[in-house]
Every structure is written in C-alpha cells, then in structure tokens.
C-alpha cells in the first residue's frame, strides 16, 4: 500500500456521507463503498471514488473508516477487510455505535489479524458532523490513535479520549441514554404546552431561557413544532441504540424505567411515521396517542 493511497470509508448513510464530505472538502483522496448504488453515486458526484466491494476498498486504502448501521454489520464485513488488505494492514477507525460485546469481539479479531483498531463512535447528528460540532469518543492504543490523529482532526475536531477499546461504546451508550430521555422530555413538554393552548414557538423560546434547557431544544425543538421529520439520525437508529442500552442494563441487573418507556415511544413513533423519519418524530407518539393505540393493536 503506497503512502498516497486514499482513505476508505465503508457505509455512506447519513453519518458516513457527512464524514465523506468533510474529507473531500479537506482535499483527502477518498474511496467509498455502500450497498446502495444511489449513495455511491452521490459520493462520486462529490469527487470520491467508488470501490467495487469492501475487499477492493481494503486493498486500496491506508486507513479505513467504518460507518455502518450496527455492530453486527461491522462484524459481517470485517473478514472482507482482512482479506482485501493482504499484507499491508490499514488502520481501521470504527465510528459505528457497537454493543460492548460486539466491539470486544472486533478488537480481538483485529489484534489477531494485525490490524490496528481505533474506536470512535460519534455523539451528534449528521448535521453536527457536517459542521464540525459533533464529538468523537476515541478509544484504543495510543500509537494507533496517534497514527490517525490528522484524519481525526478533519473528521471530528471535537473529540474526547475515553480509554481502552470498549470504553467508547460504554460512554456513547450512557450519553445516548441521557440524550434520548432529554429528547423525549422535550417532546412531552411541547405536546403538553400545545394541549394547554400555548403558542409552540413562544413556549420553546421560554424553555430555552429556563432551568429546563437542554441542547435537544436547539436540534429538535423546531423540527418537533413544524413536524419536520427529514432525518438527521433515522429514528430506527435511535431505537437500535435504546435497545443496546436496555440490553446492557439487563446484563448489569439494572432497571432503567425512563429509557424503557422512551423505547416504547420510539416504537410507536416508527409505527406512525416510519423508520426513516428523524428522531424528533417521537413527539407524534405523544400527540397522537389514540392513533398509536390503533396502530399497535
């Protein structure tokens, strides 16, 4: 593998596309792959190169970013990364939010294959990634992280070192627990204010200046008020993370009552608005409760 080999990215969904745009805009040669042809064409139009397969991408990349939906997908494609890379072992940066067991298994597999792994799940929407305000939670060996430091500066100028492989996934899940419940509380507050006859925008403006403030008001408040459910994260992704949180809590013999209720709201919102809606659509599970009951029968 030559020093001028491009960076590879596997997964061109919302986050993968936003990361790709940051790299291309910074002049980094980029090769990408996704199973959806339309996503690949968008990358090509932005100036990226499209690989024929994960194996092809691995053989042409000095560093590989994985930005797919789930840990299971990461595990499924990792064998192709190993095979395609041959003797030239790239550094793999995994931005996917994985379950603790999934990232542990991936780390053992990478070590066995002689591949350096950096865990870097991202806290923030695709819009936040695009404008550089998302935060990467970075874990792994210091030498591995240092080897991709310049790349990480481009991908996520804001980042936090959180320890060894696995610590980033744990941290991301705990952060997501707070974030998701803040979002659900905001949805419930807006729905309550609307039911009281208050002007939604006036209420949101007052809430932003109050002790109840959370960043969810900035990222989701207007979307909830206007029913703008164009995705920044897909709500199905939000539910996937909620289910990871609840699964890990059960392993720790910990009951999370707020998160369990919030996950039910997500399921109801998906039934009403579809899995590709924005996470702000959780408000519809509260606004349209009678409809939710009918949908879920």
From TrEMBL:
Show where the 6-phosphogluconate dehydrogenase NADP-binding domain sits: 7-155
Concerning Gene3D superfamilies, the annotation shows: N-(1-d-carboxylethyl)-l-norvaline Dehydrogenase, domain 2, NAD(P)-binding Rossmann-like Domain
Name the UniProt key words of this record, in alphabetical order.
NAD, Oxidoreductase
Q: What InterPro entries would the database entry show?
A: 6-PGluconate_DH-like_C_sf (IPR008927), 6PGD_dom2 (IPR013328), 6PGDH_NADP-bd (IPR006115), HIBADH-like_NADP-bd (IPR029154), HIBADH-related (IPR015815), NAD(P)-bd_dom_sf (IPR036291)
User: Is Transcription regulation given among the entry's keywords?
Assistant: no
* A GO MF term: oxidoreductase activity
Query: SUPFAM superfamilies recorded for this chain?
Result: 6-phosphogluconate dehydrogenase C-terminal domain-like, NAD(P)-binding Rossmann-fold domains
- The 3-hydroxyisobutyrate dehydrogenase-like NAD-binding domain extends over 166-285
Active-site annotation: 172
Recorded protein name is: 2-hydroxy-3-oxopropionate reductase
Question: What species does this protein belong to?
Answer: Bradyrhizobium erythrophlei
């Amino acid at each position: 593998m030559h020093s001028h080999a491009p960076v590879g990215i596997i997964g061109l969904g919302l986050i993968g596309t936003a990361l790709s745009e940051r790299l291309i805009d910074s002049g980094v040669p980029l090769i990408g792959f996704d199973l959806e042809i339309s996503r690949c064409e968008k990358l090509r139009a932005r100036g990226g190169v499209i690989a024929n397969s994960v194996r092809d991408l691995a053989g042409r990349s000095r560093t590989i970013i994985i930005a797919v939906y789930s840990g299971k997908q990461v595990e499924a494609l990792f064998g192709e990364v190993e095979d395609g890379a041959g003797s030239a072992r790239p550094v793999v940066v995994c931005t996917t939010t994985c379950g603790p067991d999934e990232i542990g298994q991936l780390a053992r597999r990478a070590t066995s294959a002689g591949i350096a792994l950096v865990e870097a799940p991202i806290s923030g929407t695709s819009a936040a990634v695009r404008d550089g305000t998302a935060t990467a939670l970075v874990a792994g060996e210091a030498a591995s992280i240092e080897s991709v430091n310049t790349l990480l500066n481009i991908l996520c100028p804001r980042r936090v070192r959180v320890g060894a492989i696995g610590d980033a996934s744990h941290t991301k899940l705990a952060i997501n627990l707070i974030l998701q419940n803040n979002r659900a509380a905001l949805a419930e507050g807006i729905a309550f204010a609307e039911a009281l006859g208050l002007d939604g925008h006036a209420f949101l403006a007052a809430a932003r200046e109050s002790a109840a403030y959370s960043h969810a008001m900035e990222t989701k408040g207007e979307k909830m008020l206007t029913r703008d459910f164009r995705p920044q994260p897909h709500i199905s992704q939000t539910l996937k993370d909620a289910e990871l949180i609840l699964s890990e809590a059960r392993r720790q013999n910990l009951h999370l009552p707020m998160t369990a209720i919030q996950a039910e709201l997500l399921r109801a919102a998906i039934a009403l608005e579809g899995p590709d809606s924005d996470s702000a659509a959780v408000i519809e599970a509260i606004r349209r409760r009678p409809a939710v009951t009918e949908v879920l029968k």
